[in-house]
Amino acid sequence: MKCPYCQGENVEGAMVCSACSRDIGIPATLIAERDDLLRKRELLVEELRQARGEIEKIRLRRKQR
Predict the structure, then answer these.
(1) Pairwise CA distance, residues 61 & 54, whole Å
(2) Which of 39, 40, 52, 58 is such that its CA lies 20 to 30 A from the CA of 33?
(3) Predicted confidence (pLDDT) per residue in 10-58, tens digit
(4) Do residues 10 and 17 touch, judged by C-beta distance below 8 A?
(5) Contact, 41 vs 49, CB < 8 A?
């Protein structure tokens, strides 16, 4: 895994960069929160697709009148 600061190579799961000694560890709680937010985003994207589909159906019905 590369350090985001100095681009030094580190072993996977390292908490501190071996080259620049900066903190590079990501707490498990942040990873879990990110995963939860990604799931929520996917649900919202799907809801938005459905809503757009419904709006398009309404527009088509109005045009047919």
Answers:
(1) 11
(2) 52
(3) 999 899 999 999 999 888 899 899 999 999 999 999 999 999 999 999 9
(4) yes
(5) no
Dist. CA 47–CA 33, nearest whole Å: 21
End-to-end CA distance of the chain: 61
Which of 5, 27, 31 minimizes the C-alpha distance to 18?
Answer: 5
Over 26-58, what HEC string results? CCHHHHHHHHHHHHHHHHHHHHHHHHHHHHHHH
Taking alpha carbons only, the member of 5, 40, 38 closest to residue 24 is: 5
